[in-house]
Amino acid sequence: MRTALVIGTGLIGTSAALALAARGVTVHLSDHDPDRARTAAALGAGTDEPPAGPVDLAIVAVPPAHVAATLADAMRRGAARGYIDVASVKQGPRRDLEAQGCDLSTYIGTHPMAGKEKSGPLAGTADLFEGRPWVLTPTRDSDTEVFNLALELIALCRAVPVVMDADAHDRAVALVSHTPQLVSSLVAARLEEADETAVRLCGQGIRDVTRIAASEPRMWVEILSANPGPVADVLSSVAADLDETVRSLRALQSADQDKRQGGAEGVEDVLRRGNAGRVRVPGKHGSAPTAYETVTVLISDQPGQLARIFADAGAAGVNIEDVRIEHATGQQAGRVQLTVQPSAVEGLTRTLTERGWSLRP
């Protein structure tokens, strides 16, 4: 691939353009808002000048409701040898293209499983897709050359290709992406009218659960409007679990010992099923689930503290797999939770203690 056209310079489009431009591909940027394309170009994602002729690959990175129309327009103009989109739903856009009589041999639906709660070109990064799954949904009509171009794009973005049926993809993202967004928003909505005293007690748990609730509502309305059935099916199952959990919690208030026992068993059941589901979540870079250990370090709210911890961990020869920071309410202090391989815990703990860090269980 030598040339590409990115149509839509939001988070995903700009990130893909940055990755391609960094690896020598000439990238042309287009957006319904010229200022967004100019911003992406200024970030080094390519040029906002139109290409002189057909490019190798056109990447359509617009909201799901506009994918088909944008693709159809690009195809009619002969903008590229091959076309892909990166929308988070796959079956709807393909049906719309078929209805418009487009030649689908030059098109493959794709979806990079990466993102942020922030949007727009300024949120884009060249490493957004590294190690992340990138789904392709080819059909028997898909041209091999276009499939290879899509694979090359994924390789240049350092993502991991995953081939799926479009319907299976839409059901999968309803479970692992779209429903979590709604559940996060539902929990965060409880905070809107909460007493200020309660809000001040927010810890890492509520921050973890509500992080993606900061996402742009209009963008998510468009995504959910393109995949409402599968999302509603998952939420219906979640609602059934919620109803059963509410009944179990009410039973714990009963004066009847048997009812209390039944309530405790009901709550334990959902917690245990949650444990079992969480274990199946892939580890870093999509690898098989890995059991990690956590080393918790008390730090003061001063410049350079995190850098010192990472440097000391490096001196111990320990790779930090993940890190979380929990701030102590009302205090100029916090806790850093370092996630490491179990075999690294002893050496890291010893080194940090020797270097004056205060560890917590």
From TrEMBL:
<dbReference type="Pfam" id="PF20463">
    <property type="entry name" value="PDH_C"/>
</dbReference>
<comment type="pathway">
    <text>Amino-acid biosynthesis; L-tyrosine biosynthesis; (4-hydroxyphenyl)pyruvate from prephenate (NAD(+) route): step 1/1.</text>
</comment>
<dbReference type="InterPro" id="IPR003099">
    <property type="entry name" value="Prephen_DH"/>
</dbReference>
<feature type="region of interest" description="Disordered">
    <location>
        <begin position="253"/>
        <end position="287"/>
    </location>
</feature>
<dbReference type="InterPro" id="IPR046826">
    <property type="entry name" value="PDH_N"/>
</dbReference>
<keyword id="KW-0028">Amino-acid biosynthesis</keyword>
<dbReference type="Pfam" id="PF02153">
    <property type="entry name" value="PDH_N"/>
</dbReference>
<dbReference type="InterPro" id="IPR046825">
    <property type="entry name" value="PDH_C"/>
</dbReference>
<keyword id="KW-0732">Signal</keyword>
<feature type="domain" description="Prephenate/arogenate dehydrogenase">
    <location>
        <begin position="2"/>
        <end position="289"/>
    </location>
</feature>
<dbReference type="GO" id="GO:0008977">
    <property type="term" value="F:prephenate dehydrogenase (NAD+) activity"/>
</dbReference>
<protein>
    <recommendedName>
        <fullName>Prephenate dehydrogenase</fullName>
        <ecNumber>1.3.1.12</ecNumber>
    </recommendedName>
</protein>
<dbReference type="InterPro" id="IPR050812">
    <property type="entry name" value="Preph/Arog_dehydrog"/>
</dbReference>
<keyword id="KW-0057">Aromatic amino acid biosynthesis</keyword>
<keyword id="KW-0560">Oxidoreductase</keyword>
<comment type="similarity">
    <text>Belongs to the prephenate/arogenate dehydrogenase family.</text>
</comment>
<feature type="domain" description="ACT">
    <location>
        <begin position="294"/>
        <end position="361"/>
    </location>
</feature>
<dbReference type="InterPro" id="IPR036291">
    <property type="entry name" value="NAD(P)-bd_dom_sf"/>
</dbReference>
<dbReference type="InterPro" id="IPR002912">
    <property type="entry name" value="ACT_dom"/>
</dbReference>
<keyword id="KW-0827">Tyrosine biosynthesis</keyword>
<dbReference type="InterPro" id="IPR008927">
    <property type="entry name" value="6-PGluconate_DH-like_C_sf"/>
</dbReference>
<feature type="signal peptide">
    <location>
        <begin position="1"/>
        <end position="21"/>
    </location>
</feature>
<dbReference type="InterPro" id="IPR045865">
    <property type="entry name" value="ACT-like_dom_sf"/>
</dbReference>
<keyword id="KW-0520">NAD</keyword>
